[in-house]
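Researcher: Last one for today. Full complex below.
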Amino acid sequence: MQIYLPIAEVSVNAFLLLGLGGMVGVLSGMFGVGGGFLMTPLLFFIGIPPAVAVATEANQIVASSFSGVLAHLRRKTVDLRMGTVLLAGGLVGAALGVVLFNYLRSMGQVDLLVRLCYVVFLGIIGSLMFVESLGAIRRARSAAKGKPVAPPRRRERKWVHTLPFKMRFRTSGLYISIIPPLLVGLLVGILAAIMGVGGGFIMVPAMIYLLGMPTKVVVGTSLFQIIFVTAFTTLLHATTNYTVDMALAVLLLLGGVVGAQIGTRIGARLQAEQLRVLLAALVLVVCGKLALELLLQPAELYSLGDAGGH
Amino acid sequence: MALRLCALLGICLALISPTPSAQAQDIVADLSQRSVSITANFDGSELMIFGAIRRDGPPQEADPLEIIITVSGPSEPVLVRRKEKVAGIWVNTEAVEVDAAPSFYAITSTGPMADILADTEDLRHRISIPRAIRSVGAPQEVDQPESFTDALIRIRKDEGLYRVEEGGVSLQEQTLFRSRVALPANLVEGDYEVRIFLTRDKQVVAEEDTLIAVRKVGLERFIYTLAHEQPLVYGLLSLTIAIVAGWGASTAFRYLQS
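Model: Here's the assembly. Have a good evening.
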């Protein structure tokens, strides 16, 4: 069934959009990532203009994150206090990111920057997570076989623990300074605005490895922060560029919210280590594909863009 | 009755009366539709263009008449970028701005364009695709500037937005003609110009222009207008839909499980 999208001004298959939304929604619920880093390139691929894809995707992420976070709230796996601190940083970061994005666009080459951002961040985070979680799985296996296991090393006092303005985060079982979460939120906000994604794939590892939060709490808290940052981004796009396509968003989010519910339930059954290996593999696949696009000669060397926006 | 018959006979005689020096031709044409409505399930449309050649003399056998029909969408400036390999990765380097390129352009004719239209006439009436695109000129430092317009045409042809169908017009008895032009699903809103050219000996002897309004209607119209005139309301509405859908799915799944 073909449907004409009023803002994107293209006609696409409605079931294809529902399917894409559902698939990305499952991943969103499982890993606590918004799914934007997968959905945005997929939308380009089916012929949605990039500006519309990025803006509409932000709107869709609001829906799937909201659906996901409700499930997490009921399981009490959302650290609201930590989420609020991350959000404060995130909103400032998103505003800064939009300013930076417009400045870079005036210089041209913003596409290249976005792609390089994707490859570098996805590459680093994917590899780190992959190696770390494989190690964790191996340790768990040898423990199961009854081999003597070295007692878990005590977390050494990192610089993170020496900073002032400490706050108790009861749900995460942490007593740390609010400066690192604020900075993480800020960085994620900037990247989210530039890359047109929720930023979960950066925030989730940062929460685990930098802040030392338990994996179970990380997903819900990340979703909580993403809702507000992407809602803010949606409004910015809607009022400045008029690129949010409501019809496209509705189709994507119908699939997305259902997918997110399924994903959250799958995620609850999997072990934390398995979850991380899967997310790492997914991140690396997307990274590899984008890197190849930069390195291999494209079939069409020319591309068309709107004139006047330079 | 007799009077009307006489009048008719008079008109017929006037039409047949020979003017051998310069025979004038005229096009009488109509379209299957004067407007195209883009609805939610719009999946392209087909335009039928038909008509007749009116002349003040019998058909000349020597130089047959030919028909060329063009349908063009609203023109807009386009920035064409070229990628080059810099330090191992493919980067957009040079860019050329094409001043005005139609968003949609279809040509259909009774025969091969090269045989029925002279270059000078093409230049004057901007009929073929390269001529329909207006490009004032690339900056000096860009090499092969014409490759940018070629790329624009190639990309739009691949997307089905630019098409040439030589032989797509059927002309009967040098008088009646008709043709179909398919309008794709990725149509942009605006006024589309239909031009019908009559050529003889590669020269344009008559032209007939019509406009078709392509407009979004119903829900499509409502969403588009709201997004542009009340962007904040539109943005908040989009967010509300998102939140409600998210909550709805979550609640529905809880009921399913319990």
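The two ends of chain B are 86 Å apart (CA to CA). Chain B has two domains: 21-216, 218-250.
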